[in-house]
Design goal:
The complex is a heterodimer of chains A (248) and B (62).
Chain A (H helix, E strand, L loop, with lengths): L1 H9 L2 H33 L13 H28 L2 H33 L7 H22 L3 H15 L2 H11 L18 H33 L4 H8 L4
Helix pairs in contact in A: 2-8, 3-4, 3-5, 3-6, 3-8, 4-5, 4-6, 4-8, 5-6, 5-7
Chain B lengths: L6 H6 L4 H45 L1
Classes of the chains: A mainly alpha (248), B mainly alpha (62).
Chain lengths: 248, 62
């Protein structure tokens, strides 16, 4: 009973708002530490790849950005499911706060992929299953943002957006398994501890960068959700007190 | 421990400099600009909500 009580407490924007504000500096700091450590290992220490030369170093941002683009979408779909099932206010706010960061991650994944593809494959872009499904993911993010922005009634916007998120979630396993299901130009997964092709410093650099991207995404999403909370809850007493208190 | 012999070596990235720095550059730019945009949006939203709140309290007081 105690756990349930706590969960419900933090699902309330009035409780979540100050908590989020207090946590943001920690996520920023941890993200910076992981980022510096990851860049040090990946850019300064890790050896040259025997096949891809120094160009392989793009993976230190390409892989984390791609993982985050998929993970953020799953989190948004999770919030959408909670919102549609329990009609909670927080879920729509969280999904809305995550969407721009997820879209940027999908864009970075495609951008760094193109810059990797040009020297390695000789093409910025190919209509390969992995690339195409990642592009669809970017369109799903943009579609979600456009759809929720186009509907004036906030509750209806959240519901329509949530449905789009849930329908689109089928795309995430398609991206993930595309390199196994189809004969793609995109290489298969390299993150495998038993594989000797990836040096330990490369792997650690990539994992540290992934943690950096993860913490960064949480920090920015929390920053964004706090503004969304003030906007959507502007008629409540706690927001009026917050605004009157001249707090940032 | 350090893999590079010189700073020029590091910048050249074995001939892949344009692609590697093009990737890292845009990522860094996005990770700097996105929080700035979010913070600025927060400031203008708070200012607007405060204006609205003042207007509302004035109206109810009259």
């Amino acid at each position: 009973m105690k756990d349930r009580f706590n969960l419900y407490r933090f699902a309330s924007p009035a409780t979540f708002y100050p908590l989020a504000g207090a946590m943001i500096p920690y996520f920023v700091a941890v993200s910076a530490v992981f980022g510096l450590a990851g860049l040090y290992l990946g850019m300064l220490v890790a050896p040259t790849d025997f096949q891809q030369g120094e160009g392989y170093r793009i993976i230190f941002i390409h892989v984390p950005a791609s993982w985050m683009s998929m993970f953020i979408y799953l989190v948004m779909a999770g919030w959408a499911a909670i919102g549609l099932a329990f009609n909670t206010r927080l879920s729509g706010m969280m999904a809305q706060a995550l969407a721009p960061t997820g879209a940027l991650m999908a864009f970075l994944s495609l951008w760094t992929g193109a810059l990797w593809g040009k020297p390695m494959w000789g093409a910025w872009w190919v209509w390969d299953a992995r690339l195409t499904s990642e592009l669809i993911l970017l369109f799903l993010y943009i579609g979600y943002m456009a759809l929720t922005a186009a509907i004036d009634d906030q509750r209806r916007a959240d519901k329509a957006g949530g449905l789009l998120l849930l329908v689109g979630v089928v795309n995430v396993p398609i991206i993930y398994f595309s390199v196994k299901w189809w004969n793609t130009l995109h290489q298969g997964s390299s993150v495998n501890l038993t594989k000797s092709s990836m040096a330990e410093t490369m792997l650690w650099g990539m994992l540290l960068m992934a943690m950096c991207f993860w913490m960064y995404s949480i920090a920015v999403a929390l920053m964004r959700v706090r503004t969304i909370m003030l906007e959507r809850e502007r008629h409540t007493d706690w927001v009026k007190a917050e605004l009157a208190g001249d707090q940032q | 421990m350090i893999h590079w012999n010189s700073f020029a070596d590091f910048l050249a990235m074995g001939g892949y400099g344009f692609y590697v720095w093009g990737s890292f550059g845009l990522t860094a730019l996005i990770m700097i600009v996105e929080p700035i945009v979010v913070a600025r949006n927060r400031k203008t939203t708070i200012a607007r909500l405060k204006r609205q709140l003042r207007a509302e309290t004035r109206n109810t007081a009259e």
